Amino acid sequence: MLNPNLVEPTLFHGNVRYRFFNRKNGVSKGEYESLNCSIKVGDDPASVRENTRRVAQNMGCTAEKLFVLHQTHSNDVVVLTTPEPFEKTPYADALVTNVPNICLGIKTADCAPILFADEVNGVVAAAHAGWRGAVGQIIENTVLEMENLGAERKYIGAMIGPCIGPESYEVGKDMYQSILDINSKYEEFFAPTDNEKYLFDLPGFILKKLNSLEIGAALWCGEDTFSLPEKYFSHRYALKRGQTCGRQISVIGLLAQ
């Protein structure tokens, strides 16, 4: 039995099932140990398939009903209105559906997974938000597509899963300036360091975005992937050590009522 990281308190109840999986209880070896869910990082494809099967089983679906994306730090959203598997995996950074008994998965290793649910109207979504996606409207576009399927903002809850925390995300002047060029008010999410760089509060930035949309509720689980490398894959932690990094997965789905 897998031991996913369940966030407490939860915003989701009833017929919404979700998991923020950590890196444990899979079959991958070495630097990918052990529940790596990305085939693109160099892991053994057979191990990734088995890990994906275990995730799907834990969620109560089959691997064919676990929908994932080629994530590209875009603001593109895919809307699912059928349980039929993709003929070809699309390039996008969010999934939205009102179809029960399928699951939406987002893979991360420092970027933020965001799971959304409107339980009243039966619409769920999963989004991948690094700083580029967050600045580039992936959050806003996800909520809009949820509304297009009948969701109402006052009923939408959003949960930010494990991601790099505000005390770990060191960035250079180029990124700092790129974000301020979009909106100078975003400076509140940066803290200068002693080495002429900045610490960026990614989960705080995302929470600000979510709250500005006037949805029902939003929270971050409070876990920093960079500071918990034994529990989560962290791209930045691995990069500093010259290592390769796997990807954990966050999943949400609607159960049939």
Number of strands: 13
Largest sheet: 6 strands, mixed
Structural class: alpha+beta
Rg calculated over all Cα atoms: 17 Å
Q: Which regions have little confidence, pLDDT < 50, spanning 5+ residues? A: none
Our estimate of the beta-strand percent is 15-25%
Please tell me what the overall shape is: globular
* Helical residues, percent: 10-25%
Assembly type of the chains comes to: single chain
- What is the distance, rounded to the nearest whole angstrom, between the alpha carbons of the first and last residues? 25 Å
Mean pLDDT over the residues: 95
Structure, briefly:
With 257 residues, this protein is α+β, with helices and mostly antiparallel strands. Helices cover 23% and strands 23% of the residues.
Description:
With 257 residues, the chain is of the alpha+beta class. It has 6 helices and 13 strands. The protein has a 6-stranded mixed sheet with strand order 3-4-7-6-8-12. It has helices at 45-59, 131-135, 138-148, 173-182, 202-212, 235-240, and strands at 16-20, 66-67, 77-80, 94-97, 103-108, 112-118, 123-129, 156-160, 170-171, 190-192, 198-200, 217-220, 248-254. A hairpin with a 4-residue loop joins β6 and β7 (123-129). The mean pLDDT is 95.
How are the elements arranged and paired?
Blueprint: E1 16-20, H1 45-59, E2 66-67, E3 77-80, E4 94-97, E5 103-108, E6 112-118, E7 123-129, H2 131-135, H3 138-148, E8 156-160, E9 170-171, H4 173-182, E10 190-192, E11 198-200, H5 202-212, E12 217-220, H6 235-240, E13 248-254
Parallel strand pairs: 2-5, 3-4, 8-12
Antiparallel strand pairs: 1-13, 4-7, 5-13, 6-7, 6-8, 9-11, 10-11
